[in-house]
Amino acid sequence: MGMLIPSGDDKDIVKKLNKRFNEKNLKKLRKFQSRTGDRIFAPGRSLRRISKRLKLWPTHSPGDRPRARWFKFLMTYLPKSVQEDIRDRLDEALLDTSLHFVVFHVQPAPDVAHRLIPSIAYSDDQTTIGRDMTLQVPNAMPQNDSGDYTDPPPEAGEPGMDPEDPDDDTPAMKGGKTKKPGKKAAKKVAKKVAKKRTTKTASKKKSGRKKAEKAAKNRRR
Q1: How far apart (Å, rounded) are the C-alpha atoms in residues 103 and 119?
Q2: 122 confidence band (pLDDT: 50, 70, 90)
Q3: Which of 86, 135, 93 is nearest to 114 (CA)?
């Protein structure tokens, strides 16, 4: 979006996209879709509005200008066919649970029009697969374009809530592990049962000792 591709703001938004669509946060988005019935990347949805809902815009440069320019880029400079291709590929990534992550790249390509190059990506240890999405950009946005400062309005089918922030790990417990509902109660029940068994065993032993003492006393008589 700046004078050079990728600029500082370009790198910043790519970093945020890669975080939002890493394995952990991709699962969160799938859970949100399942829980609310909201298909985030449904046909007809705009990347500009989706970006707003997912809190995805560059903040490398100070002020609101990077955000305004990013929204303007998505709405005006990126051809509609490429917008739809990106949206549809991300929709597929959320629906296809065999994909564990999406990784993004931006490349300068002065001799071609804007285009998306999708491919299969592999994790560093080669154990999981994801989707690689490389956006080729022929030129940067003009520096004199300050962008679009208006908020994109809600679109049809939205449930009135947005997906949680990827930085928000609630309800993660200590150690970063999420306890399943009812686990604490189950532990209490198990502890109570164990205590009851211990008390019952002790009672049986005491009763057995009393019987043995009584039998020994009778023999001495």
Answers
A1: 10
A2: very high
A3: 135
